[in-house]
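Example 284, ligand zinc ion.
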Amino acid sequence: MQWTPGNRDNIEDMRGRSGGGAIPIGIGGFLVLLVLSWVSGTNLFSLLGTSSQSPSQTVGTGGQVATSPAEERMVDMVDAVMRDAQDVWAQKLGPRYQRTTVRLFRDSIQSACGYAEEATGPFYCPGDQRVYLDLAFFDELSRRFGAPGDFAQAYVITHELGHHVQNLMGLNERAARDRRPGVNSASVALELQADCFAGIWGHEAAQSGRFKAGHVELDPGDVDEALRAAAAIGDDRLQKMSTGRVMPDRFTHGSSAQRVESFRRGMESGDPAACGAPTSNTTR
Ligand SMILES: [Zn+2]
C-alpha cells in the first residue's frame, strides 16, 4: 500500500491518557465512593485510578507515551487510511457524510459505549461516533491470526468506519434493537455490510495513479492481505481457535467465507447498493 503521512487530523491520540488500570465503577459505585470519600476524608477515586483529572491535563500527552518509530509510522498509516476512506465516503454520500476520527488508546479506555480494553478489539461507538483502536490489535492480527500487512490493517479500520456510515444512514437500527446472535441475525448482517463497505474503499484505492494524486494506492497483493484478514476473523475460525468447535447460533460477525464474500462484493462493485445500502435517491 502506498501512502503519504499527513497531519494526523483524523486521529485523537489518547495513548497517553488511557490505560492505568482504571476500573469502571458505574453510577452506583460512584455514589458509594463519593459517600466514603466524604466520610473518610480520603479521595478514594484516586485509589481507583478513575481520578478527577481534567481532560486538558491529559489530552495531547502523546509525548509521554513510550513509543517507537514503527508505532509512529503505524499512527500515520491509520491517519492516511482514515482520511482517504472518509474522502471516498464524502464523495459517495455528499452532505450526508459527517467526518469522524479514530481514538487511539492503549490497554483500556472509557467510551460512550462503556469501558473497553485492548482485548475488546477495535470497535465503533455510535454514542460518540468514534472509531476506537488499540494498535496492539495489529500485532494480534499479524501473529495470532496470521494476517499481516498494511492493507489487512486498513481493512480493519475501514470496516469500523463502515459502522460509522451505517450509523449516519440509520442502517444499524434493527441490530441495535435486536442483539441476538446467530448466522441469520441482524448483527451478522450489519457486520457483513461493514465488510462490504470496507471493500468499497478498497475498490477506489485500487485505482492506479491515486498515490501520485496524494491518495492511498494499493500494491499488487494487497487485496489478498485483506481477504486473509477477513477470513482470519470469521466467527467459525475464531470459535474453532478458542473452543475447538463451530457454533453458528453464536455467530456475531459471520463466517470466514461470508466475510470474504462481502468484502469482495464491495471491492469488485465499488457500489454501496451492492452492499444493500440505499442509493442516494432512496429515502429511509
Ligand atoms: Zn464490526
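Summary: Residues 159, 163, 191, 194 surround zinc ion (CB under 6 Å).
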